[in-house]
Specification:
The protein is 46% helix and 17% strand. Strands 1-2-4-3-5-6-7-8 form an eight-stranded mixed β-sheet, sandwiched between helices. The longest helix has 25 residues. It is globular, with a radius of gyration of 17 Å. It starts with a strand and ends with a helix.
Length: 270
C-alpha cells in the first residue's frame, strides 16, 4: 500500500492506494475513514487500483482553513481532485456509502466522464423523504444537544433514530490497528455533529444525471430496516430504478468483506 497527501482548497487529504488495474475510488461517509475500507480494498486490489481517503476534517485529513459547514459539493470536488491525482485522467469505478454515496452522485453529475460506474450504498438523502422536515428538526436538536452535552451520548441517540448500532469503543483487547481506527472514528463524531450532519443531509441529487449515467442503488440485506433503507428506496422511486441488496448491514463492506467484494465486482460487471 502507498500513502500520500493531496492538497485541496482548505484541506490536506490523506489517501491510500493499493493494487493495479482499472481505478476504483471508495468513498466513506459520516465519521468513517480510509481504514474502514481496508479489508474490502485489499480484496478489490487483486484486479483494481483501489483508492481510499479520509474525508476532509476527519482523521488524518486536516483542515488548512477555518472550519465551516461542509457540503456534498465540497466533497465531490475533493473526489474529482483525487481522481486527477491518482487515476491519470482515466474514468473510475466508484463505490460510496452514506454521505460517500451522495458524494459519488455529485461526482457523476458534475464530471460524468470521470465515472465509469457508481454503486451508491445507502445514501442518506433524507431531504427526499415525506417527513424530511421532521428529520431536519431532529438534526438541529441533536446539534444543540451536542453543544451542551458533548458527542458520545448524542451520537448514540442519532444512531438509534436512524436504526443503526453506534460504533464500538476502542477496546484495549482489539488489535492495535483496529483500536487506532476506532479512536479516530470516535474523535470524528464531533466534526460530524458540528459541520456535516445539518448541511450534508440537505443534498438533493441530480436525478437526470443519475439516469443518464451508470448508477446502481444498493442497501444492506440485514434487518431490521433502517432510515437508510427508506432514503435509498425514495431515491429509487424518483429514478424509476430498483434497489439491490448487498451483504451485511450499513457497514457490510467491513463486516462481510469477501461477500461484499464479490457483489461489488458483479455490480460493476453488469
Amino acid at each position: 500500500m502507498e500513502t500520500g497527501t493531496l492538497t485541496v482548497p482548505g484541506a490536506e487529504i490523506h489517501y491510500e492506494v493499493r493494487g493495479a488495474g482499472p481505478p476504483l475510488l471508495l468513498i466513506n461517509g459520516g465519521d468513517g475513514d480510509a481504514a474502514m475500507f481496508g479489508p474490502l480494498a485489499r480484496l478489490m486490489a487483486e484486479d483494481h487500483t483501489v483508492v481510499t481517503f479520509d474525508p476532509r476534517g476527519n482523521s488524518r485529513s486536516r483542515l488548512t482553513a477555518p472550519p465551516r459547514e461542509q457540503t456534498i459539493e465540497d466533497r465531490g470536488h475533493d473526489a474529482r481532485l483525487m481522481l486527477d491525482e491518482v487515476a491519470a485522467g482515466r474514468p473510475a469505478y466508484v463505490f460510496g456509502t452514506s454521505y460517500g454515496a451522495m458524494t459519488g452522485m455529485d461526482l457523476l453529475a458534475r464530471h460524468p466522464g470521470r465515472v465509469r460506474a457508481l454503486v451508491a450504498h445507502e445514501p442518506f438523502v433524507v431531504d427526499l423523504l415525506p417527513d424530511a422536515d421532521r428529520w431536519h428538526a431532529l438534526f438541529r436538536e441533536i446539534h444543540d444537544l451536542y453543544r451542551r452535552e458533548g458527542p458520545q451520548t448524542v451520537l448514540r441517540r442519532l444512531a438509534d433514530e436512524i436504526g443503526l448500532e453506534a460504533a464500538p469503543e476502542p477496546d484495549a483487547a482489539l488489535p492495535p490497528a483496529a483500536r487506532e481506527m476506532l479512536a479516530r472514528v470516535q474523535a470524528n463524531g464531533a466534526v460530524c455533529l458540528e459541520y456535516e450532519l445539518r448541511s450534508l443531509t440537505r443534498f438533493r441529487p441530480d436525478t437526470e444525471a443519475l439516469r443518464a449515467g451508470r448508477c446502481l442503488l444498493v442497501t444492506g440485506e440485514e434487518r431490521p430496516r433502517t432510515a437508510l433503507h427508506r432514503t435509498t428506496e425514495a431515491l429509487a422511486e424518483l429514478l424509476g430504478a430498483g434497489v439491490t441488496e448487498f451483504p451485511g448491514g450499513h457497514v457490510g463492506y467491513l463486516t462481510h468483506p469477501a461477500e461484499f467484494a464479490a457483489a461489488l465486482r458483479a455490480a460493476f460487471a453488469r
